[in-house]
Specification:
It contains 14 helices and 16 strands. The protein is of the alpha/beta class and 334 residues long. It has two domains: 187 residues, 3-Layer(aba) Sandwich (Rossmann fold), CATH 3.40.50; 131 residues, Rossmann fold (3-Layer(aba) Sandwich), CATH 3.40.50. The strands form four sheets. A six-stranded parallel β-sheet has the order 4-3-7-9-10-11, with helices on both faces. The chain has a five-stranded parallel β-sheet with strand order 14-13-12-15-16, covered by helices on one side. Strands 6-5-8 form a three-stranded antiparallel β-sheet, with no helix packed on it.
Amino acid sequence: MESGASGPVKEVVFCPCMARYWDRLAGLFARYAADDHTAVCLVVLPWFEKAADGTLLEMHYEADLFPADIPVTHYEHYDFSTLRPDTIIIQHPYDAWHDTMSVHPAFYAEELRKYTEHLVCVPYARITPPEAGDARGYQTLQYFVTVPGVFAADETLVPDEGIRQTYIDALSAYAGEETRARWERQIVVRACGEETENGSARKETEDAQREAASEKRRVLFTITLSTLLEYGERAVKKLGAVLNIMREYESRVTFVWRADPLIGAHLPSWDATLYASYRALEERFERERLGESDVSPDVYETAAACHAFYGDPSEAMRACRERKLPVMQMDVNV
């Protein structure tokens, strides 16, 4: 990279593909952009829907959906092989392993690492460390942790120490205990999302947000992919019972259903019948107006407007716990 008046300037290229996950990179991008010794470039990658046999279908290019104040370099106009940036940061670590979507194979992690000395992976999927003895939780981790982008990266950035240890344990179990030292070096705790260091200001307004949101009590609800995979139709039956309770208490409680995005991303190809049963209940929730569907990119803002949580261990549950809201874990067997 070229040199500036006060020393060498490094080039860092961010390569996201979906705008809805930009909030999970925005803080890191802002910090690099504020560094006089760093030139930052945003190259939005195209992504494709995939058929069950792996064929790439419709292409999506979401450059127009990213913040208007950040210039985007078109992927066809950035020659990685010639420019060879100092650091490349990827957000989609699944490459060909994802069942329903893919970035173009030219931008798979193993390809991009050929053109940089430092490949960084910031996985967009936010995982929740499973409880001790939670076999289904550990099984589900394999789908999101032991993936090509993590294996190819020089560094993988995660938001806290608990998640870091979860990555290290899962990767060591998958690749062999002799690899643990590698993962301990590679998995690094670093905040990458929109700045939360001024969280005290947000905290001061949470009670007001919650009060303004509704006179009724607001309960945040989530069912996760891991529960559906573990319990199958039993989980669907439980979900139906939960919807009946929502109907019973609708005059006093507003239920806020935050759907696990991993369900829609994976379950249709893994178990189409189970997904159809799940979707029928989602549609019932919407048709009967049993509550609100939450699609906010920031679960912490959603939690700030709620009074309690019910459902599976998840980021939503964690957000409510951090705000010291009442939390009840769903038991499929009850």
